[in-house]
């Protein structure tokens, strides 16, 4: 288990013992954090956009081209933005703070 701190849009911090091997999106959904994830982690939207602390962002592997394409659609994009469905928890993420933006942009077509 790895301690992850989600900071919701209203500023509330939620400290979670996350199971290693799950994505940040899965951890959020399993623990009542309001992170949308409209495509259920299939890398087809940007609604699980999160903002990471720079020290953790810099340790992650580079995002794939597909993730970068989806991030281009994210609302409130920053230099430390990633998609929660693409970050898999392991012990190196201990104490990571994950900010959930106050809005999302869902570009899916019905």
Structural account:
This protein has about 110 residues and is α+β, with helices and mostly antiparallel strands. Helix content is about 15%, strand content about 20%. The protein has 3 helices and 5 strands, in the order E-E-H-E-H-H-E-E. The protein has helices at about 25-30, 55, 65-70, and strands at about 1-5, 15-20, 50, 80-85, 95-100. It is globular and about 30 Å long. It starts with a strand and ends in an 11-residue tail after the last strand. Mean pLDDT is about 90; it is low at about 105-110.
Biggest β-sheet strands, sense, barrel: 5 strands, mixed
Strand order of the largest sheet: 2-1-5-3-4
Determine the number of helices (DSSP H or I, runs of at least 4 residues): 3
Report the structural category.
Answer: alpha+beta
Helix content: 10-25%
Taking pLDDT < 50 over at least 5 consecutive residues as the criterion, the unreliable ranges are: 105-110
Overall mean confidence score, pLDDT: 90
Query: Secondary-structure element sequence?
Result: EEHEHHEE
Ends distance: 38 Å
Strand content: 15-25%
Principal-axes shape call = globular
What's the count of strands?
A: 5
Detail the topology: elements first, then pairings:
Layout: E1 2-7, E2 13-18, H1 24-30, E3 49-52, H2 54-57, H3 65-71, E4 81-83, E5 96-99
Parallel strand pairs: 1-5
Antiparallel strand pairs: 1-2, 3-4, 3-5
Summarize the structure.
The chain is built from 3 helices and 5 strands; from the N terminus they run E-E-H-E-H-H-E-E.
């Amino acid at each position: 288990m790895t301690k992850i701190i989600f900071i919701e849009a209203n500023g509330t911090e939620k400290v979670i013992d996350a199971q290693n091997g799950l994505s940040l999106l899965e951890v959020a959904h399993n623990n009542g954090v309001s992170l949308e994830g409209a495509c259920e982690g299939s890398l087809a939207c940007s609604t699980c956009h999160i903002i990471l602390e720079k020290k953790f962002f810099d340790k992650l592997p580079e995002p794939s081209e597909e993730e970068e394409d989806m991030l281009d659609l994210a609302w409130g994009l920053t230099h430390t933005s990633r998609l929660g469905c693409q970050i898999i928890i392991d012990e190196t993420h201990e104490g990571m703070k994950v900010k959930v933006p106050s809005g999302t942009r869902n570009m899916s077509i019905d």
